[in-house]
């Protein structure tokens, strides 16, 4: 499966490498961690729209939904316990991400992914078999621990295993699998909602065990990254793996580059403390801000609660699930756009274009709802309802080829080796913290802010655009261990920290 060798097409250093079967297999297996994460994002929103699930665990909401004229369209799903069902996973994930950092560094990326898969399988079983709300949420907490470990290890694994010239495309496999997971979950929900007997939601939740099993098996098959092996003292094994994944004999320059980075890493006794030093400030600030902005686009509010949101807008139960399937499909196809373009046009172009597209979409959605959807109206009307679906799809598409994948890619490739695990841990922690905040607060915000919530997210998108223009550097074609010299020291603002 070896492909053509890479040579530098610019003044950036690109190590000799081929697209080997070992790299492709490793990246596909590791990226199933994204499939696991995405399936859970999609499945939680779907089951919360199923009457049988609501009747068993949230009877108050079930009664409220059955009497639509009594409660405001914007408020009928406003319930803290329902939001806790979704958000508890992300609260657990942000705690687990901090534990995952030393685990990833000491045991390696491979073992951390294995642990993530096993814990997620246990959480899946508990969720699917739960007979009360406490067991249901306990299962979600275990799922969150699996997500925290997977999101810590997988992006770093992908960035370290991939050849420099296609690092962006291969790393985005993680985000692509997130979108595929969401799409599959939407399809599963649409089908299980039609099963007589009211147990379809259990099948939906149990399905999360399939991608978790794929990650577990994949973790047993793949080699750990050369960076991780060498950092932990297995220099010869690391050299062997590097030769295997690059498919060439001339691995000396890249091996020496990794070896130098590992020697620096071994001198760092406290990676989290080292993160606070001036020279680590640029990637740390970028990583934190990208995670905050990623959530403040409003994407997860839409993806978590797509069926609930469309139901709020006047779609019937089946129609709301069907509409979420459409947005899921758009999400997958648009992520493929990022896979193709990220190493061609670069990161900044995709981020900036998406800001414009997301801003326009959110403003139109907010304006349509503000004019057409009143507290107790039955629906938007067919024409305006379809316009909202189109704008949601437009918004999802732009996010899927930009802030979605690049929010994980850029942090995973910009930290130096000595703080890479700690930096990724902070990245995952920040992402899960704000995902938790959005998941826990969205339905209440929708109730109180009504259509204004979309204008709220629009304001943040405008801020993101300015942040991208002035502060996010281009990292295309830069070797992962050379970011300090070739990115941060060359940047008009961040160079003063170096």
Mind explaining what this structure looks like?
This protein is mostly helical. Helix content is 75%, strand content 0%. Helix 7 packs antiparallel against helix 17, helix 7 crosses helix 20 (403-414) and helix 20 (403-414) runs antiparallel to helix 21. The longest helix has 33 residues, at 417-449. It is globular and about 70 Å long. Residues 1-12 have low confidence and may be disordered.
Question: What is the β-strand count?
Answer: 0
Separation, N- and C-terminal Cα atoms: 41 Å
Choose one word for the global shape.
globular
- How big is the Rg? 22 Å
Give a quick account of the main beta sheet: strands, pairing sense, barrel closure.
none
Strand content: under 5%
Q: Total number of helical segments?
A: 23
Structural class: mainly alpha
Low-confidence stretches: 1-12
| Mean pLDDT rating | 83
Q: What is the string of helix and strand elements? A: HHHHHHHHHHHHHHHHHHHHHHH
Helix percent band: over 70%
Layout of secondary structure:
Elements: H1 21-47, H2 51-57, H3 59-66, H4 80-107, H5 109-129, H6 133-161, H7 167-192, H8 200-206, H9 209-221, H10 226-231, H11 235-246, H12 252-266, H13 271-275, H14 281-296, H15 299-304, H16 306-312, H17 317-341, H18 347-372, H19 382-400, H20 403-414, H21 417-449, H22 452-471, H23 483-486
Helix pairs in contact: 1-6, 1-7, 1-9, 2-3, 4-5, 4-6, 4-21, 5-6, 5-8, 5-9, 6-7, 6-20, 6-21, 7-8, 7-17, 7-20, 14-20, 14-21, 16-17, 17-19, 18-19, 18-22, 20-21
């Amino acid at each position: 499966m070896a492909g053509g060798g890479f040579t530098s097409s610019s003044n950036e250093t690109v190590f000799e490498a081929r697209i080997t079967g070992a790299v492709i297999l490793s990246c596909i297996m590791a990226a199933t961690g994204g499939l696991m994460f995405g399936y859970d994002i999609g499945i939680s929103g779907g089951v919360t729209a199923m009457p049988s699930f609501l009747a068993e665990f949230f009877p108050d909401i079930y009664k409220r939904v059955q009497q639509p004229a009594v409660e405001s369209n914007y408020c009928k799903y406003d319930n803290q316990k329902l939001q806790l069902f979704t958000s508890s996973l992300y609260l657990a994930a942000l705690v687990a991400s901090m534990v995952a950092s030393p685990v990833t560094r000491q045991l390696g990326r491979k073992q951390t992914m294995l642990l993530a898969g096993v814990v997620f399988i246990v959480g899946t079983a508990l969720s699917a078999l739960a007979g009360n709300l406490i067991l249901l949420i306990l299962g979600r907490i275990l799922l969150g621990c699996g997500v925290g470990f997977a999101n810590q290890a997988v992006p770093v694994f992908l960035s370290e295993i991939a050849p420099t010239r296609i690092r962006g495309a291969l790393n985005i496999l993680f985000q692509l699998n997130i979108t595929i997971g969401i799409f599959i979950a939407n399809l599963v929900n649409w089908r299980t909602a039609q099963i007589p007997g009211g147990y379809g939601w259990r099948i939906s939740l149990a399905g999360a065990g399939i991608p978790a099993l794929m990650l577990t098996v994949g973790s047993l098959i793949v080699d750990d990254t050369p960076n991780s092996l060498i950092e932990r003292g297995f220099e010869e094994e690391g050299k062997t793996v590097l030769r295997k994944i690059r498919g060439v004999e001339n691995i000396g320059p890249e091996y020496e580059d990794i070896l130098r980075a590992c020697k620096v890493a071994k001198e760092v006794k406290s990676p989290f403390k080292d993160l606070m030093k001036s020279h680590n400030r640029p990637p740390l600030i970028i990583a934190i801000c990208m995670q905050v902005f990623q959530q403040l686009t409003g994407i997860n509010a839409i993806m978590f609660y797509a069926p609930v949101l469309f139901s709020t807008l006047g779609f019937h139960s089946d129609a709301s699930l069907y509409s979420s399937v459409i947005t899921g499909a758009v999400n997958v196809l648009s992520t493929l756009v990022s896979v193709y373009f990220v190493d061609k046009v670069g990161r900044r172009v995709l981020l900036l274009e998406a800001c414009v597209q997301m801003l326009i979409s959110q403003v139109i959605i907010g304006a349509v709802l503000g004019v057409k959807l009143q507290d107790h109206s039955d629906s938007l009307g067919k024409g305006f309802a379809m316009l909202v679906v189109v704008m949601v799809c437009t918004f999802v598409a732009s996010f899927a080829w930009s802030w979605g994948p690049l929010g994980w890619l850029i942090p995973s490739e910009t930290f130096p080796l000595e703080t890479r695990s700690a930096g990724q841990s902070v990245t995952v922690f920040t992402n899960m913290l704000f995902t938790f905040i959005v998941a826990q607060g969205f339905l209440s915000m929708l109730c109180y802010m009504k259509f204004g919530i979309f204008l709220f997210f629009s304001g943040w998108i405008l801020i993101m655009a300015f942040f991208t223009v002035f502060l996010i550097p281009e990292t295309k074609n830069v070797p992962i261990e050379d970011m300090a010299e070739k990115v941060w020291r060359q940047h008009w603002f961040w160079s003063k920290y170096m």
